[in-house]
Request: fold
Amino acid sequence: MNKLAYLVAFLFLVVINSAFSQQHFCGTDHHHRQLVEQYPHLQKEYEKFNAQLAMLQKDDDYDSQTVYVIPIVFHILHQDGTENISDAQVFDQVAVLNRDYRKLNADTADIIPAFQAIASDARIEFRLANRDPWGNCTNGIDRIRTHETNFGRGQSKLNQWDRSKYLNVWVVRTIESGAAGYAHYPTDVAELESYWRDGIVILHGHIGRIGTGSEGNSRSLTHEIGHWLSLAHPWGSNNDAGAGGCFNDDDGVDDTPFTKGFTFCPQTPEQAMLCTPGVPENYQNYMDYSYCSNMFTADQVKRMRLVLKNIAFRANLITAENHLATGINLESPLTCAPIVDIRVNSRLACVGETVEFFDASSNGVVSSYLWEFGDDASPSTSADANPNVIFMSPGAKTIKLTVGNSAGTRTAVFERYIDVQPDVPTTYSWYHTFDMQTAEQFSELTYLNNLNISDTLPFFSHDQKGHGNKGSVRLNLFKNVTLDVTTSLPSTQESRYWLNLDGFQHAIVTPGFNLTNLSPVYFSFSYSYATRSPLPDFAPENIRVYYSRNCGKTWTTLGTTTQSTIDISSGLSSGGMSTYSPYVPTSINDWNIYSRPFNVTSNDLNTRFKIEFTPSMLSNDLYIDNISISSEIPTPPPFDPNEVPNIDAGIDDFTLAHQLTMSPNPVMSGNQLAISYRAGSDPMTFTLRDLNGSILSSVERLETNQPVLFSLDIDRNLPAAYYLLEIRSAIGVSVKKVAVVR
Ligand SMILES: [Zn+2]
Reply:
């Protein structure tokens, strides 16, 4: 995808979100028009094919009593919410389809007399796949944890199974166009570059009659499969049910009368004679919007069956060979060994705190569990489905789960899955800067994202670039996948990641700090970021800063929303724009500093900070450096060994009260730093630390109530870098930055 395409895609999203915010029933026509805009010849293909169907309808080969059976797979896209519907809800939907497409529904009794004779058994049935495309045993329900459940767009169609072997249905939480579901006409997805779009996207609340489904919504899939088999709405291929004209458009089906369509259920046939006096319209058709649908007509059935005979990638579905390949040839489906997955109430926890684990396995009913939590856990193993566990020591915990049933057992290991913090941190009880110069510093932080594909994608890495010194955290958001689009788009999680960054969230979390002896406290960090395109101020990407006093279980923004947020309008794009290659900061000017005071309370024995980044589809790489708990706002520009800046010592109350000055700053190693101040009623201490908080030297001055001038020796072996001079008196503490040069 080139830059222009990104921009178009981005602007398009904005337009769609505002224009189609109202929930309407079916998005098939909307998506058809969208494709026709992109590929204008598709409209001609659609019309040509409809004309062919009209011709073929005269042949009665279609009309055999053979039942066509279609293997079906439901891909449940979820983020562990209610959209991760039960197997039973899916089974119930399949039962509804097999009832409606075989005219076994009890409400055929309600069909008005004018249509009783032509209401037809479609002789089409659906079976959940029992073999996946790789030959593995499947129950036909494929669960994928992904943020795409919030979009339901073309690119959300993860893990499409060969569309000539399976009907693919993706079940989601939200569809961004506002529809409840949508399909594609076969002609819209006939070409190779569009095959990955083939299938149906539908809301979880429109699956089955139980769980999150309902009786009233349970026929949405009956309707969408009609589109998938080339049926239009009875009033024509548009979305204007009840609003358009009578005769300006039509569905091309002979036995469905001209109609404007219905968005309500007429109470009598007379209320449904809006286009031709005395001719009742077929408001009870599954392809109408009346919500009292109960039938297909004979000619609609012919068309669907013709599609299943005449379009190659549909015709293969119903062959005996395909039934064998997809495992639906058996009398009753094989039981499959379960696929292991887990869920947890929080991946961040304190020592001694209960962590709630949940089985999230799929593909078969589990009859035995073996959880292994490690030696420091209580319990260290469990045979429960959803155990509660306490970890006794801090660290990154690896969890192992084995699940089994009569078909076999499977084990999965979840590396470093739970991040356990000490009750009261001892390592971080002093001002501290993660300047990211070493890989060790990089590994002291915790990195999270809202998708569990972190094992396969290097979201965060330790980078050589830095602000003031080498080393930073790089969040990788750019990869040129332009060449892969046609070949790898359909299935790989990886290409989906690079092309659909919006909706991801990535976070850097500090260890817990004991802040109780510190005041004042500022949380700050440097960042450098570029976009791939000029963005409007309302572009959705932002950094947001949070703190937590319970080891990371719950988070609060640092200040108000505005104070805790860096977005495009407040200087997020410090590095400007990098369109065609990964962004790399090249000068100090490419960096900005974020800093906010943090109000320390007596509860601040254990406080963590989180830097969360939400990208847009136009994001390039983000660099974070110098994550710091300090006594003052960092002073830009920072120290660079090659480019020594003048340092402003910083004025605060402490400095004013003691009339404190230091010079020279920067100071040469081996020289002396002259410090003058007015002593108060108590002695004062001057402690020089490195950025990790380690003490290099400490001096106590006993003078009281008098001006003092003394010299602090700067060790000749001290490397060029920033150091911190902590000064304590009766009135408080101040920490000054001292730059040492060689
Ligand atoms: Zn529709």
